[in-house]
Design a protein that fits this description.
By secondary structure, the protein is mainly beta. The protein is built from 3 helices and 15 strands. It starts with about 40 loop residues before the first strand and ends in an 8-residue tail after the last strand.
Length: about 325
């Protein structure tokens, strides 16, 4: 046999160009799915990534060759302290998209909210809620503005992360009543999601700074006698068109990009984080004290990064009715202590 040339296409999808830094460390959710439910339901939540572990679960996908057997699954732990519902916001539909009708804030928002923006001295909650109720016939969507409580997590910050969460299910009237009852109260992940459910995760990936084309795009290293450079690219493209095409792999920012990953399965929703914290705590994070979510697989971002969790935009067609059965959860120290 003759020598076969190694075929290795350039890595890195051009679909994600331009690869520049995310605007904010908190990911943006641009789409909320419609859900079929009689009762109104919040469609999202924020947690803080703590780290990874592995679990043994019983495979319950009927078509799997391992059906009924014990399999090992990598899992991510997200600490999810209760979120406080600070405001209700109503939207109307216009030819130019959704437009805010009005919003109603809770009477005495917590002091930490001052770290995000300047709070007015007094909110007229009753009047604002009445205005939303009068305009329910024009209202297309009801969302709540919720804030995290990082002081209840092992995250070294006081400034809360703020998120607008859509309410799905029921009629607009039901959604408004639900939001009105929730205003000023806290909500836990167990009230939003259930075990075994699939969710989408949006987060900003680990930042790697300015990197060359070999690390950033996976291009080939040139032979050692190459002119001028080895870790560059051999050509910037043709003479015509007389400019460098966007598809040419160049050096630049790598990481700290927003990424949304679809269909991560919730393996467990717990209330006491100590039952999941490994010996010596999670590296670069610490001990989980409150509620948490255990997700199957990995998610974008480093430890302590805020992660937005949302109802699935395109869930799998076949979903097992029963939550996954966990037979073993590793609490071994990752440092071998």
């Amino acid at each position: 046999m003759g020598h076969r040339k190694k075929h290795a296409p350039k890595r890195g999808s051009l679909a994600y160009s331009p690869r520049k830094r995310a605007k904010s460390i908190l990911a943006r959710i641009r789409y909320w799915p419609k859900i079929e439910a009689e009762k109104p339901q919040l469609l999202g939540f924020i947690g803080y990534k703590a780290g990874m572990t592995h679990v043994f679960t019983v495979e319950n996908r009927k078509r799997s060759s391992n059906y009924g057997k014990e399999i090992i699954t990598p899992a991510t732990v997200i600490e999810t302290p209760p979120m406080l519902i600070c405001a209700v916001r109503a939207y109307k539909k216009t030819p130019y998209g959704l437009e805010t009708l009005t919003e109603a804030w809770m009477e005495d928002p917590p002091e930490e909210l001052e770290r995000v923006f300047t709070i007015p001295e007094k909110f007229n909650t009753e009047e604002a809620l009445k205005k939303i109720e009068e305009n329910l016939d024009k209202t297309a969507k009801i969302r709540v503005i919720a804030i995290t409580q990082p002081k209840k997590a092992s995250v070294p910050k006081k400034k809360p992360d703020i998120m607008e969460i859509e309410i799905g299910g029921g009629t607009i009237q039901h959604q408004f009543e639900y939001a009105k009852n929730m205003l000023g109260k806290t909500i836990t992940p167990a009230e939003v999601f259930k075990e075994g459910q699939y969710v989408d995760v949006a987060a900003v990936s680990i930042g790697k700074g300015f990197q060359g084309p070999v690390k950033r795009w996976g291009v080939r290293i040139l032979q050692h006698k190459a002119r001028k450079t080895k870790r560059g690219i051999a050509t910037l493209g043709p003479w015509k068109p007389p400019h460098v095409l966007y598809s040419i792999p160049r050096a630049g920012q790598m990481g700290f990009h927003q990424r949304t990953e679809y269909n991560k399965r919730i393996l467990k929703i717990g209330t006491d984080g100590k039952e999941i914290t490994p010996k010596g705590g999670f590296i670069k994070y610490g001990i989980i004290r409150g509620p948490y979510i255990l997700l199957s697989g990995s998610i974008p971002g480093p430890e302590k990064r805020p992660v937005k969790i949302r109802y699935p935009a395109r869930p799998p067609k076949q979903i097992s009715e029963t939550p996954p059965q966990i037979t073993y959860l590793s609490l071994e120290s990752p440092q071998g202590k």
